[in-house]
Write a structure and sequence with these properties.
Layout: H1 2-47, H2 50-57, H3 59-65, E1 70-77, E2 87-90, E3 93-95, E4 103-108, E5 112-116, E6 124-131, E7 135-137, E8 143-146, E9 150-155, E10 157-158
């Protein structure tokens, strides 16, 4: 009787070992499939061109895709004749102005504004005449005295 019980016990142990091996193999296969599927999803999204995205999402997608807040700052000189003699730099690049009465700057967040007054013969005052609603700094109405040097107004802050 003992040998028959030993046989049953051996069969029982073997059965559960086989079940454990099959479960382990199944879990490995499921893990592999999960990783493969996730990689396919990630690669498919990255390989999806913008044109295909526009096709799927519509034109509104492209407007929000590269959205950067912008603002406008209008500078004037106390004596309007002096506005021609100054140069304005945004991030170190000369800002070309076509208006002779004021300078209207199109700015983005963290742009650095500098005013070059080295061609001036006298001190003048530059006034921030107007800004759009989203411009936090420079504040509308601020006055800067400019001599024969370069004045750093500062970094533009937008909401």
């Amino acid at each position: 009787m003992c040998s028959r019980m030993d046989k049953k016990q051996q069969q029982y142990i073997k059965f559960w070992e086989n079940v454990g091996i099959k479960i382990n193999r199944m879990l490995k296969i499921l893990l592999f499939l999960t990783v493969v599927i996730q990689l396919m999803i990630v690669l498919d999204i990255r390989l999806l061109s913008i044109n295909k995205t526009i096709e799927l999402e519509g034109d509104a997608f492209i407007e929000s895709y590269h959205y950067e807040p912008r603002g406008t700052i209008k500078l004037i000189a106390e004596d309007l004749n002096d506005i021609d003699q100054i140069r304005v730099y945004i991030n170190g690049e000369v800002y070309e102005n076509s208006n002779n009465e004021s300078i209207v700057l199109d700015v983005r967040n963290n742009d650095v504004i500098e005013i070059d007054g080295r061609k001036l013969n006298k001190k003048i005052s530059i006034i921030v005449y107007d800004t759009t609603e989203n411009v936090v700094f420079p504040i509308k109405g601020m006055r800067y005295d400019l001599g024969r040097d370069i004045l750093n107004i500062g970094r533009v802050k937008l909401r």
